[in-house]
UniProtKB/TrEMBL annotation:
Keywords: Exocytosis, Protein transport, Transport. SUPFAM superfamilies: Cullin repeat-like (SSF74788). Residues 314-674 form the Exocyst complex subunit Exo70 C-terminal domain. Residues 469-493 are annotated as: Disordered. GO terms for molecular function: phosphatidylinositol-4,5-bisphosphate binding. It comes from Hibiscus syriacus. Belongs to the EXO70 family. InterPro entries: Cullin_repeat-like_dom_sf, Exo70, Exo70_C. Pfam families: Exo70_C, Exo70_N. PANTHER family: EXOCYST COMPLEX COMPONENT EXO70C1, EXOCYST COMPLEX PROTEIN EXO70. Component of the exocyst complex. Residues 483-493 have a biased composition (Polar residues). This is Exocyst subunit Exo70 family protein. Residues 469-482 have a biased composition (Basic and acidic residues).
Length: 694
């Protein structure tokens, strides 16, 4: 880094800025980019010709212009470093300090002159001073284009000091419009000044372009020896930055000094246009390096969704790179080069706005497709959240504050449309073929997994639905005083929670309709239990969806499942239990053996049919399956054991008992444990029982 050990050009600039300028000076309140000039710079051309001599300077340059020059004491040039400019000073018997002191006195006389029709006498020192600057410019221009400055910081500092004085001199001479001598001097000084400004602008652009070479060098071996073509900036520091923006440390110092001199001299516009144009080039190149390019809209529309997902992931990556790295680095660079904060902020604002427009082209192109199938929701939510991050990092720095929010709002509306598509797909799922064996319906699986994943974005979706409601209503309405005033629905319920409950209600209604496709009432209740239990377990297994649905929904769902369970037991095992009823077994006070035989035969037939049928039925939830088996056993086995114990003595031991009392209680328990496995079993073959045929 350049370390100043004396009053540098910037120190002198600050002192010069204290010179009093009369009230006729014009000031430029705002920097305005000349886009034709910008295009020339992007094409490698100069921004245009400078004025013949001193221009009116901007408000920034004149804000602190009230200074006395007698204390300006620039450092002497190194006696061992003799240049053409040194020879000029030696020829006139002057040191560098002495020359500048005489120039300062001349400038003071111009400023203090009250009569602007006649200029003070032009001292002999002016011409050697102009020749010295011309000589310095020639020396710089003989050097390679990418490193005019940075070889000798004392030499650079003295040059900036001289150009600063030249700028002040030209400006002051310009006020003596009626004095021919002053005009002649002004023309001569203006010509040198123009030459100096042209060289400074060219060098400013050249240094700004260093990133191109350094970006390429970063892929080389870090041990590659330095070559003459590499940067000369501060050779004691690392040669280059290996990360964006790829500037050698010393180059930033030089750019700051050049920019400060140019702006003080009235060339803020040229300096800022050059900076903006070349930094845009660098930023767009960095986008390319990160593999982000503008996508052709027609090509994008023809892509399969899987390919589009990949492009969305790439976009999210580059935006995150911008929010975590690129924008902060570019802001820091602006403020390190332009020490006047309003100029730095304005330049960064222009750059950030340009990059943001480039970034927003992608989601805006995605919105034009308008094919909002349900699987696209989560990528749209990723985009929405990424835009939230972009707003938090850069939103206040953009020239158009609503630039990102407009796109973000459209993405949010697309997400709302996608969830509407989900609701429509549930309502319109009118398949007339029941799912085999009462299993969980694919619609239930899809919807619950979809909602579980969606609830990982619950905060984002809440924000989207709140914004959607505000826009739909036109403005946020005042909540009613009674929190349950709106048809019994709590107005305190979050917007997304209401939407989620609506989806669940639609799913419940659809599943209830599909359950009626089963002719067997028992299977209908198995189907309802399977689907209801699947919904319940999905919600319990995720804190996010559980939090959104709330305890009230969980309680209601559990209550519905208990009712389905009771209904199943009544439909399936009610008639079986009737077979073991004591009613109707006695005739004239005695047990009717024929009636008893019929009861055992009916029990065996019913149980065999239930086992054969319901072994094929599916209950995929192990806990529900166990609960069903335990509840069946608790009802059937005690009743069967009591019936068997009381009436088995009415049959002769041996074949008669084997014929009618087909099962022992432990056999019943084992067969119940085979229910709901989704398999087909033959009781006779598996247990060796004789089948009663009549």
């Amino acid at each position: 880094m350049f370390m100043r050990q004396h009053n540098t050009g910037m120190d002198s600039l600050q002192k010069l800025s204290n010179l009093h300028i009369n009230d006729k000076i014009l000031s430029k309140k705002h920097f305005h980019v000349d886009w034709p000039d910008m295009e020339k710079i992007l094409n490698g051309e100069k921004s245009g010709s400078f004025p013949r001599f001193g221009r009116r300077r901007t408000k920034f340059e004149l804000e602190t212009s009230s200074f006395k020059l007698e204390n300006v004491k620039p450092k002497e040039l190194d006696d061992n470093h003799v240049t053409g400019s040194d020879e000029i000073m030696l020829e006139h018997g002057l040191s560098y300090d002495q020359m500048l002191e005489q120039v300062d006195r001349f400038i003071e006389s111009l400023v203090s002159a009250r009569d602007k029709s006649i200029s003070p006498e032009i001292p002999d020192i002016v011409e050697p001073f102009l020749k010295m600057i011309d000589s310095r410019i020639a020396t710089y221009e003989r050097r390679e284009a990418s490193a005019k400055f940075g070889h000798n910081q004392d030499e650079d500092s003295s040059f900036f000091e001289a150009v600063t004085r030249l700028s002040k001199m030209v400006h002051c001479l310009d006020e003596f419009t009626k004095d021919s001598v002053a005009n002649g001097c002004s023309n001569r000084a203006g010509s040198v000044f123009q030459h100096a400004m042209s060289m400074l602008e060219t060098e400013f652009q050249a240094i700004l372009d260093i990133w191109k070479r350094n970006c390429n060098v970063t892929i080389m071996d870090s041990k590659t020896p330095k070559t003459p073509k590499q940067s000369v900036f501060n050779s004691n520091q690392p040669e280059i930055e290996t990360e964006f923006p790829y500037f050698p440390p010393g180059s930033k110092v030089v750019m700051k000094e050049v920019a400060t001199v140019m702006i003080f001299a009235g060339h803020e516009s040229e300096c800022c246009v050059a900076y903006t144009a070349l930094r845009l080039n660098a930023l767009h190149a960095e986008f390319s390096k990160q593999e982000y390019e503008n996508i052709n809209m027609e090509d994008f529309q023809r892509m399969e969704w899987a390919t589009q997902e990949g492009e969305i992931d790439n976009w999210v990556h580059i935006v995150k790179y911008c929010t975590t790295n690129l924008f902060s680095v570019e802001r820091k660079l602006c403020y390190s080069i332009f020490e006047h904060a309003p100029i730095a902020q304005r330049l960064f604002c222009d750059l950030a706005t340009s990059l943001t427009i480039k970034l927003l082209n992608f989601p805006n192109a995605l919105l034009l497709i308008k094919q909002y199938s349900t699987e696209k929701l989560f990528k749209f939510l990723d985009i929405y959240e990424t835009l939230c991050d972009l707003i938090s990092v850069i939103g206040n720095d953009l020239s158009a504050k609503d630039l990102i929010p407009k796109t973000q709002c459209k993405i949010g509306e697309a997400a709302v449309s996608i969830l509407c598509e989900l609701k429509d797909s549930i309502k319109n799922d009118n398949g007339r073929i029941p799912v085999a064996n009462g299993a969980v319906h694919p619609l239930t699986r899809y919807t619950m997994n979809y909602l579980k994943y969606a609830c990982e974005y619950k905060d984002t979706l809440e924000k989207i639905y709140r914004q959607h409601k505000d826009e739909t209503d036109g403005s946020t309405k005042q909540e009613p005083k009674n929190a349950t005033e709106n048809n019994g629905e709590s107005t305190n319920t979050p917007h997304f929670a209401k939407e989620l409950m609506l989806v669940m209600d639609l799913l419940d209604a659809n599943i209830d309709t599909k359950s009626k496709l089963y002719r067997d009432p028992s299977l209908r209740y198995i189907f309802l239990m399977n689907n209801g239990r699947y919904m319940l377990q999905k919600i319990k297994s995720s804190n996010n969806i559980n939090e959104v649905m709330g305890d009230e929904w969980l309680w209601k769902q559990s209550s519905d499942l208990r009712q389905y369970h009771k209904n199943y037991q009544r439909e399936t095992w009610g008639k079986v239990l009737q077979c073991m009823s004591h009613e109707g077994l006695q005739v004239n006070g005695k047990v009717s053996k024929s009636t008893l035989k019929e009861r055992f035969k009916s029990f065996n037939a019913m149980f065999d049919e239930i086992h054969k049928t319901q072994t094929a039925w599916i209950v995929s939830d192990e806990q529900l399956k166990s609960e069903l088996r335990v509840s069946i056993s608790a009802v059937v086995i005690p009743a069967y054991r009591a019936f068997l114990g009381r009436f088995s003595s009415h049959f002769n031991k041996g074949k008669q008992q084997e014929k009618y009392m087909k099962y022992q209680p432990e056999d019943i328990e084992g067969l119940i444990d085979e229910l709901f496995e989704g398999t087909v079993a033959s009781i006779g073959r598996r247990h060796g029982f004789n089948v009663v045929k009549n």
